[in-house]
Design goal:
The complex is a heterodimer. Chain A contains no helices and 11 strands. Chain A is an all-beta fold. In chain B, strands 2, 4, 5, 6, 9, 10 and 11 form a 7-stranded mixed sheet that branches. A 4-stranded antiparallel sheet of chain B has the order 1-3-8-7, with no helix packed on it. By secondary structure, chain B is mostly beta strands. The chains are: A mainly beta, B mainly beta. Chains A and B meet through strand 5 and strand 10 of A and strand 5 of B.
Chain lengths: 110, 116
């Protein structure tokens, strides 16, 4: 089983749509969870951390299910500028370092 | 705050040459710096973790004699790809954290290396 697994997509959605991404991780000892956004040929940028109780930041909602080792990201009212690859990231390496998923590509169309 | 820069942003070199990439934390002191590599359509893969003043810890499968890392100060780490070959062509990204490997990592803009 891959350490962090995501559906690669692409997800092609119209502006204003709601879209959800899922991610599973293999290391049950992981303590920190994040969603990063990566634009084409750019570095990843932190979108939001994911907390056990679930958390929201504007149009973005992240949820964590430790029992199922599952993380989700919901984007409401999607904008053209949301088009990017969304990376699920978990800490879990030998030194607690970050493990990145391959990412889910989102394309928002007018 | 928490800005990390990388230089150069892109480099093209001939096979067999060595390439040095610099990673700097501009407005904070980074005890720990990380070097990642990303091939097209692949995830970021951690190559090594470096702590200021000590030897880098390399991930399995990464040759330490080929990818030389120096973290000489709290604001600068360098990665030297020695005797580069076309298969080393990739996007190299560094990140820095304040103290521990588990602290928030701030990423540099990346360096695109093309080896002819």
């Amino acid at each position: 089983r891959k350490e962090v697994e995501q559906d690669p997509g692409p997800f092609n959605v119209p502006e204003g749509a709601t879209v959800a991404f899922n991610c599973t991780y293999s290391n049950s000892a992981s303590q920190s969870f994040f969603w990063y956004r990566q634009d084409c040929r750019k570095e990843p940028k932190l979108l939001m951390s994911v907390y056990s109780s679930g958390n929201e930041d504007g149009r973005f909602t992240a949820q964590l299910n430790r029992a199922s080792q599952y993380i989700s990201l919901l984007i409401r009212d999607s904008k053209l500028s949301d088009s990017a690859t969304y990376l699920c990231v978990v800490n879990g390496g030998s030194q607690g370092n970050l493990i990145f998923g391959k990412g889910t590509k989102l394309s928002v169309k007018p | 705050g928490a800005v990390v820069s990388q230089h150069p942003s892109w480099v093209i070199c001939k096979s067999g040459t060595s390439v040095k990439i610099e990673c700097r934390s501009l407005d904070f002191q980074a005890t720990t710096m990380f070097w990642y590599r990303q091939f097209p359509k692949q995830s970021l893969m951690l190559m090594a973790t470096s702590n200021e003043g000590s030897k880098a810890t390399y991930e399995q499968g990464v040759e330490k004699d080929k990818f030389l890392i120096n973290h000489a100060s709290l604001t600068l780490s360098t990665l030297t790809v020695t005797s580069a070959h076309p298969e080393d062509s990739s996007f190299y990204i560094c990140s820095a954290s304040l103290r521990l490997a588990t602290d928030t990592q701030y990423f540099g803009p990346g360096t695109r290396l093309t080896v002819l």
